Amino acid sequence: MTPEALHANWAAAWHALGVASPGDALCDELQRRYAEPQRHYHTMQHLGECLAWFDHEKALAERPGEVALALWFHDAIYDVHAHDNEARSADWARRALLDAGVDTAAADRVHALVMATRHDAVPQGRDAELLIDIDLSILGAERARFDEYERQVQAEYAFVPDEVRLPRRRAILQRFLDRKAIYATPRMHAQLEARARANLQRSISG
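-> structure tokens emitted (206 positions)
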């Protein structure tokens, strides 16, 4: 997405929550986080792809502003050696929303949406389903982009020996393949499900 499109999305999300955007400083800080050197996949490329999908599918959201801000914050904290990135990102999102004057219920819902990106359970509720489908859209990407994604994830975890990393990676991908459906929303399921299953099978078998 262009810088203009990013800022438009950012401002629209806050407007949908009934508050003024907290300004460029927070938006710029998030973009700096997504540009950190330890990141190869969880970057502005990933965020831009997610927000582009959201622009196409936001009519499905019950609370589109909350979904958009959950996307902005879902990988805000990314330490490849940590296991609480989602929790720390979710906490940052909730603080930012409360500081901007968003009510507690909405801030808590955004927190829960960010926590859903742990992918440790099938998402519940329309907004969570949409958010997770968007976050997993990479699995159903065209072959060249999926292969790039695989290389990017490998680069993020290059410090892990192959004999440890590869079985863990296959197990993670197998969990998605074992689901009855990877995508819950109708159009994303129709567009991405078959290709995601082909990509995952190819990766696991490789």
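The chain has ten helices and no strands.
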